[in-house]
Every structure is written in structure tokens, then in C-alpha cells.
Amino acid sequence: MTNGTPGPLATLEVGTGGPRVAFLHGLFGQGRNWNQVAKALAGPDGSGARCLLVDLPDHGRSPWSEEFSYEGYADAVAATLEAHAPGERWVVVGHSLGGKVSMVLALTHPDLVASLVVVDIAPKGYGSLDRFEGYIEEMRGLPLAELTTRADAESRFDEPDTGVKAFLLQNLRRAGTDWSWQANVELIARDAARGSGSRIAAFPALADRTYEGPVVWLAGGDSGYVTDDDVPVMRDLFPRTRLVTANGASHWVHTSAPEVTVATLRRVLAALPDDA
């Protein structure tokens, strides 16, 4: 693993026919977080879409990097998509961290992206990773050498929200008697320690690039991650952006409003040109 592009990235395939759709997860997530949406999109016979659930660098089963970079993440995703289906174009769906990666991918590798779906994140800096500092502290403080069972880990992990606890502990893996984090917790912790200089919380300046393809911007109505002030900035980079708000949905739109998410993605696939 280097400062540049780690690879190849780990992936999971869902579906056997139809348009190619790549899913990029959020911070501390994994590609399989999109499994249910991908199955619904592919349909019972698998012909609705060929979905690729990607583990981003430093997450899931993918390699770790030494320094965080949105451009590096986007390059790793681009190399993975190109290797998986040479010469083909993709609908790229990205949530949160993965949403920023998907935007950078579209801006830096536009020929790969037939259509873009950005889920509850804006192309801006969010100041710091203060929202995640408690999670990071709890993960770093879990005494891996003392753990005996997953139930033991769950009892020691102090997080009152059971959904968040399960989401974070999906990163905990056991090999024999040894426990480890699949996510690169130390890299994320170093980035969080930068405070307002966090690279993960930021969005890179990309020399006035734009992506001219169709973009659906799916926001959670109860989230707060996307505001009215973000619309002009988004449309400067992505002129063909259409904002869709899932009323009552949290930041994790695909889990709190799966029906809206699947219906939105089906409309995106239906609008693709025949040669996409």
C-alpha cells in the first residue's frame, strides 16, 4: 500500500444483466451495506442491473493506504471498474464519503461515468470529523487482545444506538483468537486529529472541472448534510443535477428510506441511453 492508489479493491457482484451500477459506501462502511438495494435493483432473476459493491480503500477487504486522498480513492475505484468491465460505462452511486469519491471520480474520469447518484453529501468541506470522534475513540479503545467472543466485544463497546454499534462492529474481524479492525482506524484517527484540516471532511479543488452527465442528488430530509446553500456549488460542478429529497430520511437514506432509494435508482436506469 502506498501514498498513491491502493488496489485492487475488493468487490461483491449482484445481478447478471442490465446496466452496470457501482455502489460506494460511507466512512466505516463496506460495499455490502448496499446489498439489499442492489438485490432489489437487480430483481429476482438478476437481469435488472449488474451491480458491483465496492469496498473503498482502507475499508472492508480492500487494501490500506498510508495517506488519505479523494483523488487516490477515485483513481482506485476507476482502476477497479475498468478492470471489471473494460470499455464500459457505469452508473455510480455514492453515499457520504463514497458520495464525495463518486463526485471526484466523475470529475476526473468522466468517460467512465454514464450517470451519477450522490446520496446525502455535498461537494464542500464539513469542517472536521467531530461527528465521528466518539466512534473513533471507542474503536481505538476496544481491547482487541482481551476479546473472547463477538458478544464480549459488543458488551465492551459503549455506543447506545444499536444500529450505529452494529454498523461500526461490522468492521471487527476474527482470525483464530486474534481480533482486528478491517477499517484503517488509525489512518482515520490521524485525519480526525487534523481538526479543521481534515482531508476526509474536506472536498478537493479540482481546477474548475465539471461533469456534464446526468446527476441525481438524493438527500435525506431529516439529515442536514445537504442545505439550500449547497445547491449553487453543486450545480457549478454538475450542471445537470436534479435534487431529490427523501422526506423523513436520515443521513443513511438507503437504510431509512430504501423504497425511495430503489425507485430513484430505477428511474435513473430507465433514463439511460441505449449505448450507455
Automatic annotation (TrEMBL):
<dbReference type="Pfam" id="PF00561">
    <property type="entry name" value="Abhydrolase_1"/>
</dbReference>
<dbReference type="GO" id="GO:0016787">
    <property type="term" value="F:hydrolase activity"/>
</dbReference>
<dbReference type="InterPro" id="IPR029058">
    <property type="entry name" value="AB_hydrolase_fold"/>
</dbReference>
<keyword id="KW-0378">Hydrolase</keyword>
<dbReference type="InterPro" id="IPR000073">
    <property type="entry name" value="AB_hydrolase_1"/>
</dbReference>
<feature type="domain" description="AB hydrolase-1">
    <location>
        <begin position="19"/>
        <end position="254"/>
    </location>
</feature>
<protein>
    <submittedName>
        <fullName>Alpha/beta fold hydrolase</fullName>
    </submittedName>
</protein>
